[in-house]
Design brief:
By secondary structure, the chain is an alpha/beta fold. 40% of the residues lie in helices and 22% in strands. Bound molecules: 3-isopropylmalic acid and magnesium ion.
Length: 368
């Protein structure tokens, strides 16, 4: 077999169930190295609370620079109640937000696909969600997550004031809308853009910029504008009306969690955070499951590794152009679900409960 060029991955397991689910991805990477001669070079570093415990900071400069130099970063999860009372700049989440911001990963792709084997795991009626396939494109480096001014300040009357700023520029809106339109072209050519243009100026600008770009370059795509609160309602009323949904950082955070439950479990949703391509066609990227660190179940070997494994499948596709390998991995996940193997979060009548690592092993056995 011909050896392809060495591909550098940085694994950041993080906190809670992060190390358990990343452990399964490591097994899969090793499988690809051994059986497909794909020379993936992996490095593993601390991030989040785990990094704080050892280094007093949620991400060290050394780890940050490694992330800058990697072809793709694969992250488990960060955070947990243990670090809730830390000063803001030391909180585990700051590491993730720094990576997103400084690596300029402005486009966060979050597919919400309901596998037919799992229609019963959702709290919605099966006919509403079977074959559901929505793609969220969440803006990831702007909006209220990063806007200035921000902070908690004392005010005259002895009270304190908490401030965050929701702000977007035209170009920030345009570049993420472009990603959504381009992806829609490869799907069913439908984009819904969500904002709160009825109450927020930044929402009004969002709507206008998306509309302008659509008229200029994407007339072949059907575009609908929807208020974000209405979108939240429509997602549970009739989710199949959506194909690509493009929205800002905060609404994207909330709506994608909501959509996760349409698919049965938060344990199934992968994500890709992508930057712009440089002159040589290279692009920074970070892949992570949509679920968090789930400290309540950490260490019990019951976490669902599928979201993280599917995030790795997205890395194969979007960062390494290994579409075939990516599809095979997705198919392997499907066949394991076909066989009725389930982690606890998606267990239903007539299916068999397996642990985190048994799920990983079963998926690997289907790759053979
Ligand atoms: C997500 C998470 C993060 C976010 C947290 C962990 C900072 O909820 O990726 O959806 O709010 O973006
Ligand atoms: Mg979230």
């Amino acid at each position: 077999m011909i050896k392809v060029k060495k591909r550098k991955f940085l694994l950041l397991p993080g906190d809670g169930i992060g190390p358990e689910v990343i452990g399964e991805v490591k097994k899969i990477i090793n499988w690809f190295n051994k059986n497909k001669s794909l020379d993936f070079e992996i490095e593993e570093e601390l991030v989040g609370g785990a990094s704080y415990e050892k280094n007093g900071t949620p991400i060290t400069d050394e780890v940050f620079y490694k992330a800058l130099e990697s072809e793709a970063v694969i992250l488990g999860a960060v955070g947990g109640p243990k670090w809730d009372d830390l000063e803001f700049s030391k909180k585990p989440e700051r590491a993730l937000l720094k990576l997103r911001k400084e690596l300029k990963l402005f486009a966060n792709l979050r597919p919400a696909i309901c596998f037919k084997q799992l229609v019963d795991a959702s709290s919605l009626k099966p006919d509403l969600i079977s074959d559901l396939d929505i793609l969220f494109v969440r803006e990831l480096t702007g909006g209220i997550y990063f806007g200035e001014p921000r902070g908690i300040k004392p005010i005259d009357n002895g009270e304190r004031k908490g401030i965050n700023t929701h702000v977007y520029t035209s170009s920030e809106i345009e570049r993420v809308a472009r990603v959504a339109f381009d992806l829609a072209r490869k799907r069913s050519k439908k984009v819904t853009s969500c904002e709160k243009s009825n109450v927020m100026e930044a929402g009004q600008l969002w709507k206008e910029e998306v509309k302008t770009l659509h008229e200029k370059e994407y007339k072949d795509i059907e575009l609908k504008h929807m208020l974000a609160d209405n979108c939240a309602m429509q997602l549970v009323r009739y989710p199949k009306q959506f194909d690509v949904i493009v929205t800002d950082n905060l609404f994207g955070d909330m709506l994608s969690d909501e959509a996760a439950m349409l698919t049965g479990s938060l344990g199934l949703l992968p994500s890709a955070s992508l930057g712009a391509k440089d002159k040589n066609g290279n692009m920074r990227s970070l892949y992570e499951p949509v679920h968090g660190s789930a400290p309540d179940i950490a260490g019990n070997g019951i976490a669902n590794p599928i979201a993280t494994i599917l995030s790795f499948a997205m890395a194969l596709k979007y960062s390494l152009d290994l579409d075939k390998e990516s599809n095979n991995l997705e198919k392997a996940v499907q066949s394991v679900l076909d066989e009725g193997l389930r982690t606890k979060d998606i267990l239903s009548k007539g299916t068999k409960e397996v642990s985190t690592s048994e799920m990983g092993d079963a998926i690997i056995s289907k790759l053979q």
